[in-house]
Description:
With 477 residues, this protein is of the alpha+beta class. It has 4 domains: 61-106; 113-195 and 215-228, PAS domain (Beta-Lactamase, 2-Layer Sandwich); 231-309; 312-477, Heat Shock Protein 90, CATH 3.30.565.10. Helix content is 49%, strand content 21%. The chain has 11 helices and 12 strands. The chain has helices spanning 3-9, 14-43, 58-109, 128-134, 144-148, 153-164, 230-276, 281-307, 319-333, 352-372, 428-438, and strands at residues 113-118, 123-126, 168-176, 182-197, 215-228, 315-318, 338-343, 347-350, 378-388, 391-400, 442-447, 453-460. The strands form 3 sheets. It has a 5-stranded antiparallel β-sheet, sandwiched between helices. Strands 7-9-10-12-11 form a 5-stranded mixed β-sheet. Strand 11 (442-447) and strand 12 (453-460) form a beta hairpin. The radius of gyration is 44 Å and the shape is rod-shaped.
Amino acid sequence: MNASAAIRHLTLSPTQLIYLGVLAFLFLLAVIAGFFFLRRTLHSEPAAEGDASKPDHPDVESPAAFMTASMQGVIEKLRAQEKELARLHLLAQERAQETERFSEEVTRNMPTGLLLVSATGTISMANPAAATALGAGLLQYRSYKEIFGAESQLAWMVTACLRDGRTFQREEVEHTTRNGEVRRLGATISPIYRGTRSLGRVNGAVAPGEAASGQEVKITGALCLMSDLTELAALQKQIRWKENLAALGEMSAGIAHEFKNALATISGYAQMIRSEAAPGEIHESAERIVEQTRALTHVVTEFLRFAKPLEISYEAVAMRALIDHAAGELRDAIPECEVSCEGAFEEVPGDEALLRQAVLNLARNGVEAARGAGRAPKVAISGSIEDLGGRKWQRIAIADNGPGIPEQDLPKIFLPFFTTKSDGTGLGLAVVQKVTLQHGGSIEARNRTGGGAEFLLWLPLRQEVSPTLFPSAAARI
């Protein structure tokens, strides 16, 4: 190693530099003092013999005293500067620690999830919001593929970021938690670069991965920001559904009304022909026309009920009395049906007639499903009060002992005109969903573990003007 290389590798602390400066200054003062002393000695005359006991001339000792005093003053100044440097160093350390504590508090309390992934794929830092969004516990010092899933879209994005330096902004991805819950996440992922001194250039040009300033850029990790958009996506879905219902009602209400009038005319003429014709082919044909027009009139009536805007007169509805009333109507209409009611019910704001019709339609569906499977129909209606999302909800579960709903039909059962019954219109559940949405609630269907289907109806205990975030799928279980 040559001298220049040795100098580059030599590092001294501030205190060592101070002491080195003091030694150099003392050496310089000693040289100056020796020079003055030698000059005085060479130019002074020998003292007389009678003056042998006389002390030396004061001028001879004055340079040494001056230099001693100067050295003492310099040492005091250097000590004061050393204390000041120590104070400033301590103050800088305190400021750095305070900044670090503030950064940790901001990261810990920020609502957006934050993950730092090292180049080796290990999560080096994660805040509580990230753990909540991912539905996981401890994230730090674990592999991102273990948390996201090796084949997930999030894992693929982080891999592309670490390997190729790709940046992803405001991407919406699905993440499945360990509990099997599917969440919609918004993610922004960007690489973390660090510059290092370039080892050389290729043919005088800047080599790949090397900055123009001679610094080689290296990816040392990835920064991941994520937000849980599950509730927002559910709200957007409900809003789109309301908009579609409104558009459908405006477009088709007038047509259906005219169609219903035409059916009434056809049915009237068919009934007149049937009454005047003798028994035979014409009489039977007129009878079929009357039957078909009645069926079509029923479909049109249900469609108008579904399509036209609901006029809700809000009042305090006692849900316990409403459930008991609906159960009584069901027992009177179908005596062989076994209906049970239990749980907690409170008052909700809404239209009593519409809510009773919605509950009754769900219970009748369960009865028809059980009878269609050749079983003695049983319907269980249970209620509970849930505190979710900072709001209280009336949860009503209506379960039956039928065969359940085919898995491929679950996403479609609330669509208009979708039905699995030969004589169904496919509008009953669509009307129930419309009533629920108009009351600021939500509805879902699922199959029970022990058999049969279950409909979950959620109604807010307090009416709000602003859009409502409905309970998530995980909370509604």
